[in-house]
Amino acid sequence: MFHRIVIKFGTSTLTAGTPHLSLPRMVELVRQICVLHGKGNDVSLVSSGAIAAGRERLSFPHLPKQLPAKQMLAAVGQPHLMALYEQLFGIYGVVTAQVLLTRADLAVRSRYLNSRNTLNAILAQRAIPIVNENDTVATEEIRVGDNDNLSALVASLIEADLLVLLTDQLGLFTSDPRVYPDAQIIPEVISETISDELWKMAGGTSGGLGTGGMATKLQAADTARRSGVTVIIAPGDEADILIRLAEGEAIGTRFQPINTVLENRKRYLLAARGSHGKLRVDAGAVQALQNGGSLLSVGVVEIQGKFERGDTVCIISPSGREIARGMANYPSEDLIRIRGQQSDFIESILGYIYGDEVIHRDNMVLL
Question: What is the pLDDT of residue 295?
Fold first, then answer.
């Protein structure tokens, strides 16, 4: 039912509610991911637990709560956490890759594209990227803040079909079930906006090891579903939870996507009225675009304006009419060098290649 899946493990899930990383829990969750991977799914893992692992490795020292202490614990714990993952995934012959991100990596367009390309390249090699915030260098200004919201950004980044937020709760409840025994689970959220009532229902964290709670999961769900991603908040201790969710079983709280991935991208492109430049193309390129093709360098006649890779540009016909809009795969200064050239010569001219296309059809909307 879903092909590209992002899974987020919270600290409470990895520790099973204890002060220590729970190897039995980690083994079981890794097994399920490998089952999905073996079925052909693209799976990315956003994992908390570095600070908890660092605290455990240092025998639970008493430290101040300032950011440097947390960064120190993350620095100690992250390699230990990754070593465990590498060992556990290695049992199933699955290769893993570590990806550390900050908000700056996703806010600056060039770094956003580099992050996306790296993740897609990892998935193309049938490896599993394991993503965490780069806590050892992140300051308050560039922190994502928690891995719930980081997972939503990653899901949007790689255009995932499904984001699973595993937690120590069964899902989103009408009130805190730890305080109110009569609280009822909310099986599905389909409204376009998250109501004030739902925000009030979301409580904070109680375990003390993690940085997120139900409120951050609600934030993450709202972010991801606006990028066309289905989001499910579900219990991490449920048997075969990941496999069952991927097959479409109704468990936890499901947030239906507001837009499709394609609609979301087209809205972004159409909204970019202040586009950074123009590409004048020949009649052959116009015909190719109208037939569903991508824009190649051989069809580009003239570059107008200055823009960077990832900027939105207008595509202009020989008569001067705007026929399409899309995200440039190369900066203007490099397009000047490769315009009119066959795609086979791009690498020899520039010394690098981001792809055969100047603008890929998936990153373009015809007008």
Answer: 97
Confidence of residue 84 (pLDDT cuts 50, 70, 90): very high
Mean pLDDT of 17-33: 95
Q: Please tell me the distance from the alpha carbon of residue 171 to that of residue 8, in angstroms, as a whole number.
A: 14
Give the contacts of 66 (CB within 8 A, at least 6 positions apart): none
CA dist 14 and 99 (Å) reads 19
Q: Is the alpha carbon torsion for 291, 306, 107, 196 positive or negative?
A: negative
One DSSP character per residue, 25-37 reads HHHHHHHHHHHHH
Domain residue ranges of the chain, discontinuous segments joined by +: 4-259, 265-366
Among 189, 161, 234, 227, which residue's Cα sits nearest to residue 8? 234
DSSP-derived pairing of the beta strands 42-47 and 253-255: unpaired
Give the per-residue pLDDT at 34: 98
- pTM: predicted TM-score of the whole model, two decimal places: 0.79
Q: Which two tokens stand for residue 216?
A: 């951050």
Residue labelled with tokens 């499901």 = 254
State pLDDT tens for residues 199-258. Answer: 887 754 434 444 457 888 998 999 899 888 999 999 999 999 999 999 999 999 999 998
Alpha-helical segments (H) within 189-310: 196-201, 214-225, 241-246, 261-271, 283-290
Query: Which class would CATH give 265-366?
Result: mainly beta
| Residue 315 to residue 119: CA distance in whole angstroms | 28
Q: Of the candidates 149, 118, 145, which has an alpha carbon nearest to the alpha carbon of residue 134?
A: 145
Question: 3-state DSSP: the chain helix, strand, coil percent, rounded to 5?
Answer: 40, 20, 40
CATH architecture of 4-259: 3-Layer(aba) Sandwich (3.40)
Residue of higher predicted confidence among 118 and 139 = 118
Which ranges constitute the DSSP H helices of 108-260? 109-124, 147-157, 196-201, 214-225, 241-246
**Around Cβ 211, how many Cβ atoms within 10 Å?**
18
Which pLDDT belongs to residue 77?
Answer: 93
Q: Tokens representing 272?
A: 């970019």
More confident: 115 or 89: 89
Q: Where are the alpha helices (DSSP H) in 16-101?
A: 23-38, 50-57, 67-90
